[in-house]
């Protein structure tokens, strides 16, 4: 399976006309997943370990997982179909009865939020990673433009 997936990390989160652009990638390539504005903010909060007054939905899910002895093992962004990304949440439950691994179909944005909150790996299916457009230069340019506008202020 190791050759079938590529580890990625969040390389940036930027506002976009349709919400937030989550830039995922590694040294080889960066690609974008569009999420709604709220999910972009949630993922940013988990990235920064921002304290929250009340638990968010993903905090609640994590508390339920803790109560049931379930851990998030990893998330895998599996495919792009009709401009929609698909992902799998890989969960593990261990107790006195043994160990159970469960794969759950989930939105990539939810998977990314849960993985970020739990500091767990985000993976992309190799065939998907090979086919997505590389946005590394665009992200670098946007970060450069952002730095320039900050310096002028």
Description:
By secondary structure, the chain is an alpha+beta fold. It has a single domain (2-152), classed as Bifunctional nuclease domain (Roll). It has five helices and seven strands; from the N terminus they run βββααβββαβαα. It has helices spanning 37-47, 57-67, 108-118, 126-131, 136-152; strands at residues 5-16, 19-25, 30-35, 70-81, 84-95, 98-106, 122-125. Strands 3-2-1-7-4-5-6 form a seven-stranded mixed sheet. Strand 1 (5-16) and strand 2 form a beta hairpin. Helix 1 runs parallel beside helix 3 and helix 2 (57-67) packs across helix 3 (108-118). The longest helix is centred in the C-terminal third of the chain and has 17 residues, at 136-152. The protein is globular. The mean pLDDT is 92.
Question: Do you know the CATH topology?
Answer: Bifunctional nuclease domain
> Can you write the helix and strand succession as a string?
EEEHHEEEHEHH
Give, in spatial order, the strands making up the sheet with the most strands: 3-2-1-7-4-5-6
Main sheet specs: 7 strands, mixed
The CATH H-level superfamily is: Bifunctional nuclease domain
- What's the helical proportion of residues? 25-40%
Percent strand:
35-45%
Which CATH-level-2 architecture? Answer: Roll
Q: Mind telling me the C-alpha Rg?
A: 17 Å
Count of helices? 5
Number of domains: 1
Q: How far apart, in Å, are the first and last alpha carbons?
A: 49 Å
Shape estimate: globular
E-strand count = 7
Based on secondary structure, the structural category is alpha+beta
Which CATH class? Alpha Beta
* Rounded average pLDDT: 92
Ranges with pLDDT <50 over ≥5 residues?
A: none
């Amino acid at each position: 399976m190791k050759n079938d997936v590529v580890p990625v990390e969040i390389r940036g989160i930027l506002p976009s006309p349709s919400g937030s652009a989550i830039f995922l990638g590694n040294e080889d390539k960066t690609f974008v997943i569009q999420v709604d504005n709220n999910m972009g903010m949630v993922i940013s909060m988990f990235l920064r370990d921002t304290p929250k007054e009340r638990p968010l939905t993903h905090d609640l899910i994590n508390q339920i997982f803790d109560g049931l002895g379930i851990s998030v093992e990893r998330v895998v962004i599996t495919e792009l179909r009709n401009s929609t990304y698909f992902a799998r949440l890989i969960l593990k439950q261990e107790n006195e009865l043994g160990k159970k691994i469960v794969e759950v179909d989930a939105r990539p944005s939810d998977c990314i939020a849960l993985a970020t909150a739990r500091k767990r790996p985000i993976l992309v299916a190799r065939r998907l990673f090979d086919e997505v457009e590389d946005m590394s230069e665009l992200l670098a340019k946007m970060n450069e433009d952002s730095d320039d506008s900050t310096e002028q202020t």
